[in-house]
Description:
Layout: H1 20-23, E1 40-42, E2 48-50, E3 52-55, H2 61-74, E4 78-80, H3 88-98, E5 105-110, E6 114-115, E7 122-123, H4 127-145, E8 150-155, H5 170-188, E9 192-198, H6 202-210, E10 220-224, H7 236-242, E11 246-250, H8 262-271, H9 275-284, E12 291-294, H10 299-306, H11 315-322
Amino acid sequence: xxxxxxxxxxxxxxxxxxxxxxxxxxxxxxxxxxxxxxxxxxxxxxxxxxxxxxxxxxxxxxxxxxxxxxxxxxxxxxxxxxxxxxxxxxxxxxxxxxxxxxxxxxxxxxxxxxxxxxxxxxxxxxxxxxxxxxxxxxxxxxxxxxxxxxxxxxxxxxxxxxxxxxxxxxxxxxxxxxxxxxxxxxxxxxxxxxxxxxxxxxxxxxxxxxxxxxxxxxxxxxxxxxxxxxxxxxxxxxxxxxxxxxxxxxxxxxxxxxxxxxxxxxxxxxxxxxxxxxxxxxxxxxxxxxxxxxxxxxxxxxxxxxxxxxxxxxxxxxxxxxxxxxxxxxxxxxxxxxxxx
Length: 341
């Protein structure tokens, strides 16, 4: 679910022995960045999240550990991880070596209960079994990372088959609500400071918010978002913004498609910036004020990725890029692989 070469996504670090009471108020110091000041965004629960994160999907344990170390050397303090990336020990090792836990923002992620396209494959349709499975994987994520808690835990997608293009049905909404109940309970245990979703469309968010067991609004919705998809694909970024949910863009370079975009190359020359930087800057300047997940194990590219906060694209260049219809990226340019509308 993460593109190759120059994608970008988030990742976290290894925790020190903080008391649970201190955990609830601990925030990451953006000043920890060594060469570039990375801003943070305040989530709807008061947690501050660095705007750019390192992604770790597709790496083995050794590569993941090295990428995390390279990211921290460049000044990136946010790491994105996932249960189904199968490299959590490597992420945890890299974070432990890179920084103190208080200097890191760590995001984790677990899979939906219906997950048939890839590992962990399962088709759990009973809400209570779904709750139990989710809680098990939440705790296992911490164990594999070697952490006491994460800063943000995301639900990887709605319980719809991969590639589904409809809205969330009543039965699927019940499964989503069961998983969200597990997330809320995990947060009450002080195992995560904030909880959010990924690949959720409007109908899935609406039925989640309307569930009788829901007491917490997702703080983040991580979706595909890049040049070529338009300013407001399927009206999902603007919808999330209206609900106080921060959009976090995965695959912001469309697996390298943005890097080779003629428009991004041409505009980048005018600013003495790379096409990748133009693509990332375009996302950051959208009205929905998205955050980013980038992916690279190269110190050079990581430094390039975080050097996007001290300049801006002109309104004319933004409009030019808003009109681009390529690259499509994953899912034929849809923001979610799990639902639509």
